[in-house]
Amino acid sequence: MTMTRVITQQALGGSDVLELAETPLPSPGPGEVLVRVRAAGMNPADWKVRIGKVDFFGPPPFVLGHEFSGTVEGVGEGAARFAVGEEVYGWTVPPHGSHADHVVVTEDRIAPKPRTLDHVGAAALPISGFTAYQALVALSDVQPGQRVLIHGAAGGVGHLGVQIAKAQGAYVIGTARAAKHDYLRGLGADELIDYTVEDFSTLRDIDAALDTVSNDYGLRTLPTLKPGGILVDVVGVGVDRTEVTARAAELGIRFVEFFLEPTPAVLTAFAELVDTHGVRPTIAGTFTLAEAAKAHELSETGRVQGKIVLVPQAVSPR
Predict the structure, then answer these.
(1) Are residues 114 and 93 in the same domain?
(2) Measured CA distances, 179 to 101, 138, 183, 196 (Å)
(3) How far apart are CA 208 and CA 226, in angstroms?
(4) Is the confidence at residue 237, as pLDDT, over 80?
(5) Same domain, 113 and 138
(6) How many angstroms separate the CA atoms of 135 and 170, rounded?
(7) Residue 296 domain-assigned?
(8) What are the distances in angstroms from CA 289 to CA 7, 25, 310?
(9) Both 133 and 179 in a single domain?
(10) CB-based contact 159:181 (threshold 8 Å)
(11) What is the domain range of residue 50?
């Protein structure tokens, strides 16, 4: 029996519950493809699921991970969009986690890998990049000359949001610690606010705001927006947004709680934007599968600049 490796856990808890295990190589079913994972992205949601803060995968055991880039190794019945050997990137949902050597995924969750990125770069995009892309392009319809506010601008979603908003021709304002301002200027940010010493709520005439922090940021951001502006909160479940929803309605501001649903067409469109405008993910760290616990520990610090990526041991990420 052919085997493959996965990062799994038998219980909820600290990073020590993660283990590298062997499991039978999965076979793609109808409409599915088998992808050899060359690199897999990490997100804060991964450690939150690991400890039980977010109940998305159900009870252990499970394999974490949503983002990946790799090579098609098998095609199931009725799956006709991709052939063996093609390079793809995409996302997956339970029970198929991407923190593994292989992942089975329905073909509607993958698209051709951006041509100008290697697998490590491509694996950093499907969740974080697509979240920023859909929030700013599909939902906010950012136009040239508009003023866009991005909270957590140096984070996994934020640093890509800065680049995407600039690609749309916007004037971009970001919130981040002062130590990250030079980095963000290098990505194209026009104005930066150190949220530890400055009050961003004094800003005005914002057309669209991307909130990667949530909690009280929503209420504090509403006064900055023009009537008819939009605030997109991408943090996900678990945050009470009752007050911000009501206040946004009073002010005539569109408030959206964003939930990611990548489609092949938009994954392809985003890859084209990446290739055309030179959008690049910042890689905060690259770890092998055997080092998954270290990767989780770094993610939990909350001070990650860019994205963390896992690569299979002894396999080139390119």
Answers:
(1) yes
(2) 36, 31, 8, 11
(3) 9
(4) no
(5) no
(6) 14
(7) yes
(8) 7, 16, 6
(9) yes
(10) no
(11) 3-127+262-311
